[in-house]
Amino acid sequence: MLIGSYVTFLQIPIFHLELLQSFSKADAGNIILCSGLQLSCPVSLKKLSIDTYEEGRELTETEVVGILMFAQHSQRLEKLMFLFCLLPQSIAAEDIPSILKSRKVKVTWLPYDSGKIYDLNLESGRWMYDDRTLDVTDAVYSKEVSEFREVWQ
Q1: CA distances (Å), origin 70, targets 111, 116, 137
Q2: Measured in whole angstroms, how far is the alpha carbon of residue 142 from the centre of its chain?
């Protein structure tokens, strides 16, 4: 049984879900936890945090898109956060669910405990910084990758 389906059956609203060191992968609109349990997205979810806090976890574009596909099932989602992981420099704009764009869901990324926070431009699929005024360039991303890997070595 899917955890989210059980929670929905019991009519328990979940507004904030933080997956702390428990995210394994996203598959077919569900999240698979490290324990092997499948989690469907609660429709009441407002905030989802994926906190890998593993040594150097680097998520692929496919994994990020899988998480976006999971998140689109919430009817109330406002914020999706990726914490302590390395993400791709950009996400193909056509792979970002249109429902997230129309609801203006804020997607943020904190690679490590440096205080640098990036926001995903849902239209272009590019990460932005400095209050969403600057795209992350190749040079900025390369520096971020180097610093991330240095922190997790």
Answers
A1: 21, 26, 28
A2: 20
- Short-list 109, 119, 118, CA closest to 49: 109
CA–CA distance, 86 with 84 (Å, rounded to integer): 7
Q: Write out the H or E segment, with its range, that includes residue 9.
A: helix 3-9
Segments making up each domain of the chain, as ranges: 16-22+46-151
CB 83 within 8 A of CB 51: yes
pTM of the entire predicted model: 0.87
CA atoms of 82 and 88, how far apart (whole Å): 12
Q: Which residues sit opposite 18 in a β-bridge?
A: 49
CA of residue 46 relative to chain centroid, distance: 13
Identify the bridge partners of residue 38 per DSSP, sorted by sequence position. 32
Q: What is the largest CA-CA distance in the chain?
A: 49
For residues 3 and 21, what is the distance between their CA atoms, to the nearest angstrom?
17
pLDDT tens, 6-42? 444 456 788 888 888 888 888 878 999 988 888 888 8
